[in-house]
Amino acid sequence: MGVNMAKVTISGYPGSGTTTLVSGLVNHFDWQSINGGQIFRNEASNRGLTLAEFGKLCVEDESVDKELDEILRNHISGDDVEIIESRLAGWWAYRLQADSVRIWVEVNEHERANRVISREGGSLEDVLEANAQRLAIDNQRYQNMYGLTPSDPLAYTHIIEASNISAEEVLAQAIKILEGK
Question: Is it true that domain 8-107+154-179 has CATH number 1.20.1050.10?
Answer without folding.
Answer: no
